Amino acid sequence: GYGPELPVVQDLARAFERSHLGTAIIFEWDKTVKAVERVKAGAAHIAVTGEADPELRAVPIAWDGIAVVVNFANPIREMTTPQVKALFMGQMTRWSDIDGADANVEIIHRTPDYNLTPGFETSLGIAGKLAAAARPARSDQKALSQVSGKDAAVTYISLTAALKAQEDGIPIRVVTIDKVEPGAPTVENGRYTLRRPVLFLTAPQPDPLTEAFVSFARSPEGMRLIRSTYVPYTEPAGSATTQKIQPTPPQGGADTPS
Questions:
Q1: What predicted TM-score, i.e. pTM, was given to this entire model?
Q2: What's the CA gap between 96 and 47, in Å, rounded?
């Protein structure tokens, strides 16, 4: 695959291998990997992505909350969804437009081929409309570093990474959106709307080993491992295992139990 999910999926794979002796899970994790097409062709068993495909079974394993992050010196503490849209589309260029400092907004963009970016766009309903980026930050760590060093900067990163950075004393602030505090409970129940799904895409009728790995990811042990980075996906009451949830358009990913 290609995206920030790799460490979590590796943790799931290692734990699964320990409980299924003789099993090996092989990863192809590169931006050139066309994961969904490889699963369709039978060349891979699982694509790790954020967008469902009508020809494959989509199993949600987690939600990734997406935080809007500003420098701690910025007086902005909360924004509305329309303000976030206008900010990142380049329609709002000064912080004073939302009761902030009289300074130009400096957006730290993210790479468009990183799963977080299409998820952010889709959660805001602005797919393909983000302002052009000259030098985007490829990782959450680089985005945090730039925002922490620039008073007028703003970016978006995975919520877990943002909250940890804030707790560790890095001079950033996670912005409240529509008066909803960002956190695992509000991401899980959907009140915090800036979130993207993490999906496992498999063949409609996967082989037993693939099905076992998918089930492990959704087990209590799997959810414990997922919780280190994401919000584990839990089924709404009375729902089926495979959910039709609002996806984000990613560049895909694949990991292959063999």
A1: 0.85
A2: 44
